[in-house]
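Problem: given the chain below (354 residues), write out its structure.
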Amino acid sequence: MGVYELAITTPSSLVSQNAEDKVVCYGAAITPITYYDTLGSITPGLERLHWIGTADSTTPPAGIVVNNLNNPYAPITITGSPTESGQFSSILYIPNPEVCGGGAFLTDTVNYTVHPELNGGLIEPIIQYTSTGFPLIDMENALSPSGGIGVPTYRWQYSYDSIIYTDILFADTSTYNHTESLSNDFVLRRVYTNQCGTVFSNLANVYFVKVEVEEFAVTTHGRILSANADFVDETGKIRLYPALTHYGEILHYVPYVMTNGVSQLGSTTAKFTGAILFNGYDSVTDKGFEISTDSSFPAGNTIRYSNVTDDPLVVNLFTYDVTGLQSGTVYYVRTYATNALGTTYGQVIRFVTK
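Solution.
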């Protein structure tokens, strides 16, 4: 006779522990179910556990383990942490042992609800560049967080080292409009929390750039200094780059431009943002964006967009709303600007249409 056979009290019931229906989060441990019954003198192989909602009737949901089925010397247990979401049921069939007078199978059913896995979603732009005096591009909800159960909450965090993260005050929605004045490269992430736990979005990188021109000029006191000092331009205003030679001649350079980022990304559309950080002390005659499916921007695979829109609030910031892109395609975009000395390009940013 099996060790636990006499735990059956009547021919119509099983002695069980924690065999109530289960509602759990993805990956969370279920309270172990135990059935104190064995086959005893019944021929082994007659105990059956039938599953509904899984790949087949003998396979439990991923992450769930069944022990001691058809073992006359140990209780049947159902344990584990489900890594498969959905609605499932287990139906246990145990022969009615001889001590209970024989007869039909005893059965017990447990229903399992496993909430979907938490997903932090995606934020964009994943890369952007900025500089002193230029705003950051707003962080958009490219793919909504999902999974779990309950009313979600949002937070936004930044970090300078991708190790220690700091909450941003009053940033509690799925998108984030920058108001903070951060002055170094940093990463941003969105924090999503509900009853099933907390997850994070992808990381968005923000890089700060500055103009560096290697020449000499005169200070307000007439001294010749290197490019790392303060300089005066032809109007006498202090600049961080040289404007006059030590003979008083005006210096000219090619422009210095920046590709800020790609936002409002769709399957065939996107918005490009760029800026002219320094005009080279010369008039900029052309500016805009170049786009290609090749990161080297070959002549036969590059489209130039010059009909840009100047930002009404920020001087030298401009945008372009591109259409006609191919869905699910890798593209590369860069800013360009031209003056009398030549054309220069900003950072190359890779993006993928939806």
